[in-house]
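Technical appendix A lists one of the benchmark inputs used to test multi-chain prediction within the project. The record comprises two sequence entries:
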Amino acid sequence: MNSNMEKPYVVGIDIGGTNTVFGIVDARGSIVAINSIKTGAYAQADEYVDAVCKNLLPLIEANGGVDKIKGIGIGAPNGNYYSGTIEFAPNLPWKGIIPLAKMFEERLGIPTTLTNDANAAAIGEMTYGAARGMKDFIMITLGTGVGSGIVINGQMVYGHDGFAGELGHVIMRRENGRLCGCGRKGCLETYCSATGVARTAREFLTASTEPSLLRAIPAEEITSKDVYDAAVKGDTLAMNIFNFTGTILGEALVDFIAFSSPEAIVLFGGLAKSGKYIFDPIQKAIDANILPIYKGKTKLLMSELKDSDAAVLGASALGWEVK
Amino acid sequence: MNSNMEKPYVVGIDIGGTNTVFGIVDARGSIVAINSIKTGAYAQADEYVDAVCKNLLPLIEANGGVDKIKGIGIGAPNGNYYSGTIEFAPNLPWKGIIPLAKMFEERLGIPTTLTNDANAAAIGEMTYGAARGMKDFIMITLGTGVGSGIVINGQMVYGHDGFAGELGHVIMRRENGRLCGCGRKGCLETYCSATGVARTAREFLTASTEPSLLRAIPAEEITSKDVYDAAVKGDTLAMNIFNFTGTILGEALVDFIAFSSPEAIVLFGGLAKSGKYIFDPIQKAIDANILPIYKGKTKLLMSELKDSDAAVLGASALGWEVK
C-alpha cells in the first residue's frame, strides 16, 4: 500500500457530465470526507475549478490541511494522463483542450494527476478492489457508454498519445451495426451500455408481440434497470435482452483476451449489477468462443468497489502515484 | 544498444515447421554466422536439440567459444516466455509440453530465453529494425497464418499466462465467417494470411467470370505471390483481392489501435512485401474507420528486417535480455 505517514491522504475528483464528486481518501481506501457540485452549472472551466476548490478546501482543512495531502487524482471523460488535460469531451460544458491538472495544481499547490474515468476505475480496482495484486487485467465500465481501463505488467496502458483503451468502440457488427455517438456503426457500446440495453429492449418489443412486463412502460422511457426488474420477475423477453447483450459482450471479451491474455476481466457499473442475468450469458459466450489456449484461464469478476464511492476512490488512487 | 564487451554475441534460433535456422549475431544486428537443419527430421525433441547443438557449436567455436555468447534467444510457434516451453504446437513434430529453453541451457551452458515467433519478430524490430526507440507498437506477421507481437510501455506483452497477442484470431466476420484452423470461424488469419489471400482468390474466381491472369493457374495451386504478380501486371481481379484483404486487415488494425493506441503498426512477412497493393487498401480502411481521437496518429510501417535474416535476428534479440 502506498501509505505515507506525513501525507496520509489523497484527494479524488470524479468529473461526470452531471455531477463532480470529490473526496479525501486514506491509504486503506476509506473516504474520510466527500462532497459534490453540479458540473454543468459552470460554463467556464475557470469558474468550475474555483467552485470545486471552494468546496474542497474546507474538507482538506478539517483533515489537517494541504500538507497532509500527497496528491490529487482526477478521473474525467477524455482525460489525457500524459498532458493532464481533457480534450474535446462531448459531455462536458468546456470545449477544446482544458489543462485541468495544472489549474488545480496552481490553485491548491498539490501535485495533480488526471486520467480518463475508466482508467481511474481500473486504478481504484487495482489499489482497493477486486484486482488487488493483479498485474494483468481489464476493467470494463458499463454505464451510459462502455469504457475500459487496461493494466498490463502492473501498469496502466495509456498508449503513445495517452488515449489507449477505448474498448467501447471496437466494432462488433460490421454489417447493419447500430449508429454510435462516435459517428461510426456497430460499436460495442451501442449494444452493451445501459443505453444499448434500452435500445435492444425497444427493438425486441417492436420485433415481436410477445407479452412482457416492459410493455407497460412507454418505449422511450425504458431503462436497463426496468429490464433488470422485469427479468427478476421472470419476464422472458427481458431475459432475452440480457442474453443478447451478454452474448455480444462475451464475444468482445474473447477478442480482448486474445490481445493481452489478462488474469481477470472486471465489470463495473450499473449493468454489471444485474448479476446472473448478465454474467451467465457473458460467461456462456466466452466459453463458446474462446481460443483453445485461453480456455478457462481468465476470471470474470464484478467490481468490489461500492458504486457510490468507486469513482472518487478510483480517481484518488492516482493521487498516490504523483511524483 | 545492449552491447557487452566481454560477451559480444548472442545466438538466435528460429524454429519453423520446416526449417530451424540458427545464427550468431553481434550487438549491431549483424549475423556473423548462420546455419540450418530440417525441423521435421527429428521425431524426438532430444534428438532435435542434439542436432541443433551439433551444428551450432562449430559456429560458436569459430567465434571465440561459449564464453563470448551472452545468451540464446529462441523463437518458436506456441512458445511460452515464462516457462521456456513450447506447448502443443500443431506444426511441430513433438507433442505436449517441451522444455526447450532448459534443454538448450543444459547442453550448452548458456542462458536461454524462448518466446513465440511473432514476439521474437517484434523484439527484433524493436532492437534492430523499424521500431527502434518506440515504446508502443504492434507487429503483425503476415505469413501462413497471422501472428502478432505487442509492445506497450517498452515491454513485450506476454499476459498472465505467457500467451498474449494472438491477434490473428480476433473475429472479423461473425456471420458466415471462414473456418479457421483453430476450430472457430471468421478469424482475421482466414482472410489476411498468405493462405487467406489464396482462399480469397479461389472465391473471387468462382464468383465471377471476370477475365484474370490467375485463371491460367490451377485454382488449388494459386499463392499470394501469384496474386501479387498478377496485380503488378494490372490484373483487376488480383487488385480486388488485395483490396478485400487490405480492407479487412485495416478494419482489424482500427480495433487494435482502440486497445493500445500504438505509435506504429509494423507489418512483416511475404504479404507485407506486396507494397502499395496491400498497404493502400489497409491505410484507406484505417482512415475510413478510425475513431476520431486516433485519426492520423498511428504510423503504418513495413518491417525493416531483411526477410531471410529477420527470424534469427528477432530470436537473437531475446538473447540480450537474459539475466
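The mean pLDDT of chain B is 94. Residues 23 and 34 of chain B are 4 Å apart (CA to CA). Comparable benchmark entries are summarised in Table A2.
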